[in-house]
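Quick log. Single chain, no ligands specified.
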Amino acid sequence: MKRIINWVLSLTLIFSATLLSSCSSDDGPSTYEKNRNDMHDHIKKDLTVLSETLNFDAMNMSAEVTKQFIQLTGKSRHLMDDLKAAMILATVQNVTQNTHIHGMRVILDEKGNYDISPAEGLVFIFPATIEGRGTDLYKMTLKNSKNWNEASGAFTMTMSALYNDKEVVLNKAELNITKENEYAMGIAGLMLGAFKMNSKLQYFPIAGESEDVASSINIGMKRDENGSLSLGITYSQKEQTIMNTGFIFPLAQDFPLTDIDTTIENSEFITAYATILNDIHIGGTINRGKEFLPVWKELLANASLPADQYNELVKKLDEQLEMYIVCGRRGNMVEMKLTGDQDAEGNHLMPTFDFDNSSHFTALKDILDATTMETLKNTYKYTALPVTNAATTYSDMISILMRVLPVKE
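-> predicted structure:
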């Protein structure tokens, strides 16, 4: 699951570099100049909204704490096995000895040593060091909508900081995984079977000065009985939807869902869509995943290639893509292609647009003034890293916990 979410986020970020661009909202016949001017004005408007909204302090801190939690659990090969054994033993004792053990507490030190004891729910207490704040204790609490050791439709996770004996909530997450066929429980059931996964992750101000939600990520994943896999991610700040994105992978019913590389390679086409601020829409398809994947990987790994070699890779990539952009509810659909571009930082992708269906494509850098273009690049960079880190560390933690958690039948 971690690799799936990580790679899909990478796919999203490749396409989202072009999201802050659009076309005319004119109902009548569009012209090149009209669409071009509308695009420039629309980008500046959206950049103003984003500059007043985006703040990743809470998300960055939670991601760093989660990352250190994962590192600590990884220092012992036996922690999760010992924890699962303790949970099974407690379940047996509840039945045979009429005990009432409803959870486990795991206390870790900085070396990964641990102590397991009965508690309410599943609780991890561990140290983490945050730049500018020093080392503090943090607590990750997992609760089931039923008893901790019963299969259930929903799990709730809370990450808190323990500051001077005061508990400050950093984030809360709800996770619902439901298996929908006869395959085995756990990872095997998700590899081959139909399932649904819905998750909501909320971040709160890091100093605890407010209970208002600072930002949130909603993740939905579903695999149908026919094998098709769909995944959607929505990112919001202060109740403002910043980005909504999704992908559909048409897979064979018996295809094992193990990693995203083979998932892409076995998809003849992948449907993709995304929106920014519920206003700018991008969509399209990735064709022939087996041909697309190696070119895409090479582009990501070789931004410093000579310009002619980089441009040749971009051309091959673009041959596998069919993309369009629409601005607003009544906007015109504008075809979009990618080309290579170079600046002082190296090579990067540059979106181009056919405003008047003439097969003449205009590059985004030739539409925006230099200041707006630089602001756009910085906004993209500022957004991409924290969102990716947060989602991937969270999915890492889910993967770890799934080793000890039941999955609803």
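Residues 370-401 form the longest helix (32 residues).
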